[in-house]
Amino acid sequence: MIYTLDIGNTRTKLAMFENNSLLKTEYLSTKNLQEELLFFLKKNKTKPKIILASVVHLDSELLNWLQTHTDFIQISHTTPLPVVNKYQTPHTLGIDRLVVAAGSTIVYPNTARLIIDAGTCITYDFVNTENEYLGGAISPGLQLRYKALNDYTAKLPYLQTEDINYFIGKNTNESIQSGVINGIVAEIDNIIDHYKKDYSDLTIILTGGDTVFLAKRLKNIIFANPNFLSESLNYIYQYIIENDKKNHS
After folding, report:
1. Residues 96, 179: one domain?
2. 25-39: average pLDDT
3. Which residue ranges make up the annotated binding site for K(+)?
4. Residue 45 pLDDT class (50, 70, 90 cuts)
5. Residue 186 is part of which domain span?
6. Which of 15, 164, 224, 233 has the fewest CB neighbours in a 10 Å radius?
7. Structural domains counted in the chain
8. What is each CA distance from 97 to 24, 125, 172, in whole angstroms?
């Protein structure tokens, strides 16, 4: 059993893998991560194998606990990965973006890859056929756009995502829904089209919390997988272990 941890600012996604099969996912509180992890790991008779990626700084108490009670790997910018980081400021690249770039290299080799992670922000990450990470883009996600319209105007309401089928908003709420949802879909499709002009063999992966909602609205053919980051961590764990075996053989 391999456990993957995608540690965010407030929530942590825990995924459990057996022989590359995803068995279960759970969401834990990042603030109470040690306590909640213990609940899931207490049945293990041996040290559980964990690989984690965190966008927040982990305190020493949690790291010491992991070191004592688990066999864990923490992904950092110095971790040997199957992708070359060509970002101009490599140490500012979000670990989550680096993980999906590396995962795409393992799962979809020998093609150009665009990974779109639709969460709080929408991140676009591009890897070429030489497995070089070149960069991408960051824009506001669905909820961030709704919140910004409410926060930075006097009268616009704060709305939740709805499953709409119209383009012309006939009142203020419909206009917000159309602007946010149709605007994001147009953005994603346009960016994909831009990459396709230069990379005809482009593989497109859509992941993140809004994957299912957005995938059915896009005109482009994509691989939609909301668990791609967790799966990437699982593959990276095996990649690291195999490399260690080769280096010590």
Report:
1. yes
2. 89
3. 117
4. confident
5. 79-248
6. 164
7. 2
8. 23, 7, 35
Enumerate residues 6+ apart whose C-beta is below 8 A from 235: 20, 103, 106, 107
Residue 93 has pLDDT above 70, yes or no: yes
> For position 102, which CATH number holds?
3.30.420.40
pLDDT > 90 fraction of the chain, expressed in percent and rounded: 76
Token pair 């990437």 is at which residue? 232
Written as six digits, the tokens of 30 are 């990042």
Q: Which of 74, 104, 123 is the last residue of a domain?
A: 74
Residue for token pair 């140490």:
91
**Segment holding 124, helix H or strand E:** strand 121-127
Count Cα atoms within 13 angstroms, Cβ side, for 84: 6
Per-residue tokens: 161: 């995502």
Q: Is 96 a catalytic residue?
A: yes
What number of helices (H) and strands (E) belong to the chain? 8, 11
Dihedral, CA of residue 219, residue 96, residue 108 and residue 199, to nearest 10:
50
Report the distance separating Cα 12 and Cα 201, nearest Å: 34
Asked whether the beta carbons of 13 and 232 are under 8 A apart, the reply is no
- Say which of 59, 71, 96, 163 is annotated catalytic: 96
If asked whether residues 51 and 145 sit together in one domain, one would say no
